[in-house]
Design goal:
7 strands, TPP_enzyme_TPP-bd, globular
């Protein structure tokens, strides 16, 4: 009987070496694990394993340091861009990025996020937007959609009561200090590949000193949304993408990747 030899490059899944064997605490169907894998892959492909520094504040990703074997720094809630600024200014040769959720980045960290990006700090802000506070009970976030129900707006978000969803990525694209601003997702293979290219472009731009980059990843929170992983992906596609359309919003890097 002929044996079919499967070469490593043809494997459907290969875990990056930077990802260790610690079991992840994320809920089944959560987008965080996929994004973690992409970050690890890009860092490895760039050969920056020993020079990458991640900054994770409070939120679902607070334990990101447990899964990727690079240098990490914890930050107070919302303050990751300020911490990343200090690290990058002290060690300009390091690949410095933040990893933040929408409640952290767009609520308590709005000031730090906008001013770090506007200063053109050579860092990458990775923005996981699932339109809810996933870790603390499913409360309404700045990015919660109109009409979307959460534990703190059980009848749905209303403009007259709660205001409108905040489009941080559109705001970032207007700032002079940003060189690359994009919105991606990871619910399909094609989307995952696009998100990986975006992360690579952002990381390379930061190392080239071209300014700040923000990579938003529109994501699911099936636990907070009270949906199965499959239904959460469908809801995201039918609702989130209408208000948060995917694609590059700004690119002055001059890169074709």
């Amino acid at each position: 009987m002929n044996e079919e030899i499967i070469s490593p490059e043809n494997l459907v899944y290969k875990k990056p070496e930077l990802m260790n064997e610690v079991p992840m605490h994320y809920c089944p169907g959560c987008s965080h694990g996929v994004v973690h894998k992409l970050v690890a892959e890009v860092i490895e492909e760039m050969g920056m394993e020993d020079k990458a520094v991640g900054v994770s504040p409070v939120g679902c990703a607070v334990f990101a340091y447990r899964y990727l074997d690079i240098d990490w720094q914890e930050a107070a809630h919302g303050r990751a861009p300020a911490v990343a600024t200090a690290i990058k200014r002290c060690w300009p040769d390091r690949l410095v990025f933040t990893y933040q959720g929408d409640g952290d980045l767009a609520c308590i960290g709005t000031c730090e996020t906008i001013h770090a990006l506007n200063r053109g700090e050579n860092i990458v802000v990775i923005f996981i937007n699932n339109a809810i506070y996933g870790m603390t009970g499913g409360q309404m976030a700045p990015t919660t959609l109109m009409g979307q129900k959460t534990s703190t707006c059980p009848y749905g978000r209303e403009a007259s009561l709660h205001g409108y969803p905040l489009k941080m990525t559109e705001i970032a694209a207007t700032l002079e200090g940003t060189c690359y601003v994009t919105r991606q997702s990871v619910e399909t293979v094609a989307a995952i590949r696009s998100a990986k290219k975006a992360l690579r472009k952002a990381f390379e731009a930061s190392m080239a000193g071209k300014g700040s980059s923000l990579v938003e990843v529109v994501s699911t929170c099936n636990s907070g949304w009270k949906l199965s992983p499959v239904k959460a992906n469908k809801w995201m596609q039918e609702n989130m993408f209408k208000f948060y359309p995917k694609g590059d919003l700004k690119d002055t890097t001059g890169s074709e990747k």
